[in-house]
Request: fold
Amino acid sequence: MTSEFSPVQQEVLDNIGALRETWPTFDPELRGQLRGELESGISEHVAMLGPDRHIWANKHAVGSVLGCEKRFLADREFPGWSVPLARGSIVHKAIELSINWPTTPVPGDLVDEAIASLEFSEANIATFLQQLTDTDRAQLRSDALDRVTQFDECWPRLKNQWRPATEAKVRLDLFDGKVTMQGKIDLTLSRAEGNRAGKVLIDFKTGKLQAAHMADLRYYALIETCRVGVPPRRIASYYLEQGRFQPEDVNEDMLFAAAQRAVDGINRMIELELEPENPAIKPNPGCRWCKVLDTCDPGQISLREFDDPLDDLP
Reply:
């Protein structure tokens, strides 16, 4: 018997779907408990901030400050657009368009429409796209097309009843906005029903599996729980080049561990905001993308120890 879905598409369905009666339930008090853990953990550090200082904590900032503090300080300002960075925005926009495409979508059409919609938008990527050389534009389209084609091959068509949302923004303000935890999730599916967890959070990745990817998703799950009061049911990284899920079911222990990690990261961000001198240098595979690598001897030396230099941007 011929199946409607390829084996890899069926694997996607198996990972994102579950009977409602199997969805876990959570204590309604969990939201307040997690927020309390966050606020009590950072209260002393927040008190040290002046009236005009504000901390923005996204997944990259928290992961970076808990990794190499020198890179964290270097990355505080947006480094500007590049073809690899723009590619991610194009791919996510193309996937978003595919959800509501009136006919069976063709990856090339999705990519072209994604580029056009962003190029003539008010987003800050627009100027970068308008100024691309023909060579860079061709390279950007080729790179994005490769990723969108991988998605098209591996994923079944997303149905409206799954409530798909791409680049879904989540945010949590603490201490009247002195600290903002925020994120943007590549894809969310389903939703909570009462105190029963149904939502799935997914990030798309290229390259090889990294522990930091799951840490990022746990951070999203923490914010989502504090935002709506019910955790997501599952989080997952999806590796397009491998056609492979790396899923994890959400539980309370995970969320409290994510809260402690967020506390550690935010406290260190505040310390570096007040005293940025002598940041800790912790070489890691991300050194190859650090904009201060040329002046960092430990980072240059460490790259010899990490394999697969063609891995994509984290």
User: Anything to note?
Assistant: Residues 22-79+162-274 form one domain. The chain is about 45% helix and 15% strand. Residues 239 and 284 are 21 Å apart (CA to CA).
